[in-house]
Design goal:
Helix content: under 10%
Largest sheet: 2 strands, antiparallel
Radius of gyration: 14 Å
Distance between the termini: 26 Å
Number of strands: 4
Order of helices and strands: HEEEE
Shape: globular
């Protein structure tokens, strides 16, 4: 697992909806011990709660990619409970085919 972008801030109602589907990560999470900046180029560090990386969300993005990371923030569209993480191609490996 690797981070390839970040979303714009979620609206409070959307954040609650996403939060209801998240589960706390167990030991050995791939980002255990990683520090996250509050924004691009910021030295401020966020307090984070690591979650299991199995929830799929649909996002929109422009095509600008810089060194393997989206240059601009992604926009959250919706949770995809009809798709598993195994159904999603790895970043750069092809388009995501919508189920249903």
């Amino acid at each position: 697992m690797r981070a390839v972008g970040r979303t714009t801030p979620l609206r409070p109602d959307t954040a609650r909806q996403v939060g209801a589907h998240l589960a706390a990560a167990g030991p050995g999470h791939p980002f255990e011990g990683v520090r996250f900046a509050a924004s691009w180029g910021s030295r401020d560090v966020l307090d984070v709660v690591l979650v299991r990386p199995d929830l799929v969300a649909e996002v929109s993005a422009d095509r600008a990619v810089d060194r393997g990371v989206f240059r601009h923030p992604l926009r959250f569209q919706r949770i995809r409970l009809d798709v598993t993480a195994d159904d999603v191609p790895r970043f750069g490996q092809g388009p995501v085919v919508a189920a249903g």
